[in-house]
Write a structure and sequence with these properties.
With 175 residues, the protein is an all-alpha fold. It has ten helices and no strands. Helix 4 runs antiparallel to helix 10, helix 5 crosses helix 10 and helix 8 runs parallel beside helix 9.
């Protein structure tokens, strides 16, 4: 996709806006429906802030739905080539396509254990991490309590969302 200017974002019709931003939060089609109503945006940071505020303002049940919509890192969907294009690229950039057998076994074990404890997959901004830091994060964050992990997970979704928006929109101001 070609990068859009913020002026072009502001001029998208409603369906176009929903399509373009429909997966900046993984499988969360409701976010762009709400965010499009806040246009015009002065710059990409204002657009990012709107999505961040959306994530802050949704209730706990909706936050859990957002967290549960994320795939396991290096999990079954990745192995079957069924991730979204965004997740595929993010996991590839973290080196998750090139795990050794031992790393894969550890990742699978820790993912299963984490998901069993918290009820949603481990979420980390893969583009800001590599294999070892992801494995360490899975190990260390398992010791958090439920509320800490919901908040940490949402904060990681915010990072992912911002990077996805920055892949779509150029950083310039509207005059």
């Amino acid at each position: 996709m070609t990068s859009l200017t913020i002026s072009e974002v502001n001029s998208l019709n409603e369906n176009q806006f929903e399509t373009v931003f429909g997966n900046v939060i993984e499988h969360c089609k409701g976010a762009p429906v709400m965010i499009k109503k806040l246009r015009p945006f002065k710059n990409v940071n204002e657009l990012c802030d709107a999505f961040q505020k959306y994530l802050d303002d949704i209730n706990e049940e909706e936050k859990l739905a957002v967290l549960k919509s994320h795939p396991d890192l290096a999990g079954r969907l990745a192995q079957q080539g069924e991730l979204t294009p965004e997740s595929t690229e993010e996991q590839r950039s973290a080196g998750l396509n090139d795990l050794t057998q031992e790393q894969k076994r550890i990742m699978d074990d820790r993912n299963t254990r984490y998901k069993s404890k918290f009820g949603f997959p481990f979420i980390i901004c893969a583009r800001e991490n590599k294999v070892q830091s992801i494995l360490d994060g899975l190990k260390n964050r398992y010791n958090n309590n439920y509320d800490q992990e919901v908040q940490t997970g949402i904060n990681e979704v915010k990072k992912i969302c911002k990077l996805r928006i920055l892949n779509i929109v150029t950083n310039e101001h509207v005059q």
